[in-house]
Amino acid sequence: MRRPLPFLAALLALVGPASGARAESPPATSTPPAGAALSLAALPDEDHLAALLWEQSAEFAAVRARIAATRADLIRAHVLPNPTLDVSMNTIPIGATNPPGLRRWAEVPNYAFGLSELVELGKRGPRQDSARAALAASALDAQATLRARTYDVMDKAADVAATELRLAQLQELADDAAKLTELQRVRQRHGDAAGLDVDRSVLEEESLQTSLGEEHARLSDALLACAQTAGMPCQPFGGRTAAAAFLEARLARAPSAADIESRPDLRSLSAQEDSARAALTLARRHWVPDPTVRAGYVRDQFVIAGNQLNSLFVGLSIPLPFFDHGQADAHAASAAMEAARVSREKLAAQSARDASTLASQLAALRERRERLRNQTLPMAAGVVQRLDAAVRAGGAALQDLLLARRTYGELLLHAADLDQGAFHVSTGLDRAHSAGPRAPESLTEPRS
User: Fold this and answer.
1) Nearest-angstrom CA–CA distance, 439 and 138
2) Where are the domains of the chain?
3) Tens of pLDDT, residues 348-368
């Protein structure tokens, strides 16, 4: 359907091929309650939409759990090792006592009570630094995912808006075609029109009705995709005005010029590199043995042998890291640090290239969109109006009117496609830069 005819091709040459469209969210509205549908006509701004997705999307329940687990690792890194309590009963006699006649349980055994504590040397600081950076990376990963999902929902909303615009335009064309068909039938009954003209009008009306059915199917698919992305049902805009306003709002904004380096996914990679660097320091310090200090009390009842009845003891044990001195952990940390560094450099370079390309595409789309709306569409509408008046007066052929109306319809649909594509290019440019919704408070400053 919607195949351009010669007159259409000439008009399309003025605007060029469709590529994209741009749009922004309407003013912020109250957050819908849990379980409510997302009304696209009252779509919140980016900040409120991100907060809504963070609280209600099932996807982020697991993300919050991962952040909690990473925060638990940081808490654990600040906790001292638990001391060990040693209790023992020693010198338990077997057989006859020496000297004979001693009370076996009251005058021979000794009882020892001691505490042991591991003392880590040079390891707690790097372990805490690694856990702190890992928590920051986890929070930034969640922020990057939330940012991407927010833009995904906006793109799906733009698809719904463009489809509703096409539906409204096709419906108007179908209504006009039905009126023209009825007019031709009346004229045929009065002998002013041939049966062939009636058939042509009927076929044009049927063609438009078929296109309407296809657009209704596209709208259903677009709403389903929106619901799957947002994690809640999406309600359509409900009319051309709200849909057009949504698409127009983003095109009215100046292109984003935010710093690429501030993107949460790039900052996450930097935090991952810092975490791996601290883990490497920790692994290298495994060469330093961690002593275990012991202290305790002994009550020795074997005083007949000259033993001290009450005494204290202290001790120190030192492991010898001859075999395992952290070489495996150092290898893993080095690989993780290098991977994070390389990934960040390549992703930043790719983002800079994408931003440059998308900015050029958006500028071209804005220019074609302005030309289409200010020149081509008014010209096509004027042609249709004049031919319609001429056909009704019997001064022009029906075929010319049908061709002009079909061309005008194609241009209207092309305008909706152009707005939709420009919206996607605009959000793509924001994705490439660091623009985006403000992160929820729980993600901005992870607590230790």
Assistant:
1) 13
2) 6-80+138-287+348-444
3) 999 999 999 999 999 999 899
Residue tagged 């919050």 (tokens): 64
Strand partners, 110: 90, 300
Alpha carbon distance 225, 231 (integer Å): 10
The residue count of the chain comes to 448
Do the Cβ atoms of 286 and 127 come closer than 8 Å?
Answer: no
**HSE-up of 420 (CA within 13 Å, CB side)?**
20
Q: What per-residue confidence (pLDDT) applies to 196?
A: 67
Summarised one tens digit per residue, pLDDT across range 128-179 is 999 999 999 999 999 999 999 999 999 999 999 999 998 988 888 887 777 7
The architecture of the domain spanning 6-80+138-287+348-444 is: Up-down Bundle (1.20)
Specify the pairing of strand 110-118 against strand 38-39: unpaired
DSSP 164-178: HHHHHHHHHHHHHHH
One-letter amino acid of 287:
W
In angstroms, what CA-CA distances link 178 with 173, 194, 207, 333, 398?
9, 17, 11, 72, 14
Question: What's this model's pTM, rounded to 2 decimal places?
Answer: 0.80
Identify the residue whose tokens are 């007019």.
183
Encode 146-156: b = buried (16+ Cβ within 10 Å), e = exposed. Answer: bbebbbbbbbb
Contact 119, 80 (CB under 8 A): no
Residues 204 and 91: their CA atoms lie apart, in Å, by 109
DSSP letters of 23-77?
----S--PPPPTT--EEGGG---HHHHHHHHHHH-THHHHHHHHHHHHHHHHHHH
Phi, psi of 107 (to 5 degrees): -125, 0
- In the predicted model, is pLDDT for residue 194 greater than 60? no
What is the structure's pLDDT at 35? 52
Residue that wins the pLDDT comparison between 207 and 159: 159
Question: What separation, in Å, do the N-terminal and C-terminal C-alpha atoms of the chain show?
Answer: 60
